[in-house]
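Give me the fold.
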Amino acid sequence: QVQLVESGGGLVQGGGSLRLSCVASGRTFSSYPMGWFRQAPGKEREFVAATGRSGILKRYADSVKGRFTIFRDNVKSTAYLQMNSLKPEDTAVYYCAAGSWITTVQDEYDYWGQGTQVTVSS
């Protein structure tokens, strides 16, 4: 079992930045590729970014490429999502997830955090 706890969400003006953190406990963090997803009001949850066990391989949704960066610190058992140039359409609850491989498909992730709210004002 892996327990994931996100933090770092909040209210920010458009063009601003936030860094989300996802702290893992339980089984060895470095064994799991990590992903970030988000769900906006009235919409389905969507893929944002993912990284492999070492943090070298990364994938991004087209909507966040060049603005968001996923990275991890296996010593601290923490995954991060650095979000720059935020837009109102980035407003959502952000979730981190741990899985078996790098994938954009949420059903292929085994463990999920409770989510953290990000609100971007115009």
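The longest strand covers residues 18-26.
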